[in-house]
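Ticket #4471: structure output looks truncated?

Reporter: J.K.
Steps to reproduce: submitted the chain below (167 residues) through the standard prediction queue, then opened the result file.
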Amino acid sequence: MVLTMNSVEYNPIGTIYSPHKELHGMPIQPVGAKGVKGLIELNNEFEKGLKDLDGFSHIILIYDLHLCNGHKLTVKPFLDKVERGIFATRAPKRPNPIGISVVRLEKIEGNKLYISNVDIHDGTPLLDIKPYIPDFDATEGEKLKLGWYADKHHHAKEKKSDKRFVD
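Returned output as attached by the reporter:
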């Protein structure tokens, strides 16, 4: 399957499977999906690319938000009651419907990756996998500013999606 968005073309490398069959009620971030198991079935031609990935405890998944139709430049995010600019949120209604999640890599068997902390809808096309490396991805020693999330991000663990982004 080829995903074409404007002049950019993506070829999914596999499919992400999870227990999340409905958009409504899903965890909004991996922090709210602790222990939720999932499976990635990588297309066979990419299996060789998994070499050495088993040495990492966490991976970054980049995927197509294939159930999103259209986008909005301002949205009311799950953790707020105020309209925010889409680029100041992690809401799914984006100009380019690309999602990212950091999940725990449990094990690899052939072209199958067993993962946990999955906040992704069942059957989602996977675009890429990258190892999570704290020295690269964390901002140790830097003063962080969390914008409007500063007093809200602690609620992400228990917050579930509602129908605000479902068409």
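Triage note (M.O.): checked the attachment and the full token line is present. The longest helix spans residues 134-137.
Status: closed, working as intended.
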